[in-house]
Amino acid sequence: MAADRGFIVGSALLFTACAAATVRWCWSTSQRMPMGGGGFLVEAAAFVCVWAVMMVAMMLPSFVPALLGYRRLLREAHVRRVGTPTVLAGVGYLLVWVRAGVVAYLLSVGLMTAEMRWPVLRPLTPWAGGVVLLAGGAVQLMAWKTRQLERCRMGLLCGRAPSGTGWSAYRDGVRYGVHCCLCCTGFMLALMVFGMMDLAAVGGIAALITLERVARRPDRAARAVGIVILAAAALRIPPVGELHQEAVLRLWR
Fold first, then answer.
1. What CA–CA distance (Å, rounded) separates 144 from 148?
2. Dihedral angle at the C-alpha atoms of 95, 175, 183, 53, nearest 10 degrees?
3. Is 138 left (phi over 0), alpha (psi -120 to 50) or beta?
4. What is the number of structural domains in the chain?
5. Which of 10, 26, 27, 186 would bridge 199 by S-S if both were Cys, CB 3.0 to 4.6 A apart?
6. CA gap 203, 121 in Å, rounded
7. Dihedral Cα 84, 101, 156, 11, nearest 10 deg
8. Contacts by 125-129 with C-beta closer than 8 Å and gap 24+?
């Protein structure tokens, strides 16, 4: 539609810029993001900024179709200017992911602090990663996941009538962002294990998220991804005897 041409071009430019920044950070940063030297608040702010840009690159391909549908419904409700509600809905959606980034940062700092304070926990790291992947794969196979995915595919309004007001548009974005975050729980758990700065993991998970949104049978797509994540978990968890032997050796040192 001609009226949406500018929106599509702007979204493409935003995606290109965020994707380029994400690729640059992934190439220049180790798998674990640096956590030292700048103070907790500075490091947290830097992490959340990187996370926000990365989430735009990952989620925009699946979010733009939802925004296009939102703009169409606004026009059908005789809202004259759809640009402002679109931007406010996008801001609300992004802020939900920013809050998720804060949680991810706190979890990462907590785990790293525990690992440094209690070295005996280090041999458990492969097991912990495998357990997290098992949880992520299990989420993908749940009926709850399918319900969240259906809500994401329904668009920002989920059958409700749009009002076109600023505050209402912002809440529409927040509500959709919450459903999207919940729907992506398994993916985010996998991303934390594989590395939030691992370019292959970021690109692969972004592609899988988009695939779930556009697949004809999204439930089957979600289950297939869940099986893949479970297989990755099985490969990541070391044998019990090997883990026990390593733990004993570390204790004797």
1. 6
2. -20
3. alpha
4. 1
5. 26
6. 31
7. 50
8. 126/236, 126/237, 126/238, 126/243, 127/237, 127/238, 127/243, 129/193, 129/236
DSSP 30-96: -SSPP--SS-HHHHHHHHHHHHHHHHHHHHHHHHHHHHHHHHHHHHHTT-S--HHHHHHHHHHHHHH
Element (H, E) at 3: none
**0.85 cut: is pTM over it?**
no
Nearest to 70 by CA among 157, 170, 179: 157
The segments of the chain whose pLDDT lies below 50 read 31-36, 240-241, 243-245, 247-249, 251-252
For 170, the domain range is 2-252
Q: What is the rounded distance in angstroms from the CA atom of residue 199 to the CA atom of residue 58?
A: 11
CB-count exposure of residue 19 (10 Å: 0-12, 13-18, 19+):
buried
Cβ–Cβ < 8 Å for 223, 138: no
Q: How many CA atoms lie within 13 A of 237 on its CB side?
A: 15
Question: Looking at the chain, which runs of residues are DSSP E strands?
Answer: none
DSSP-assigned letter for residue 196: T
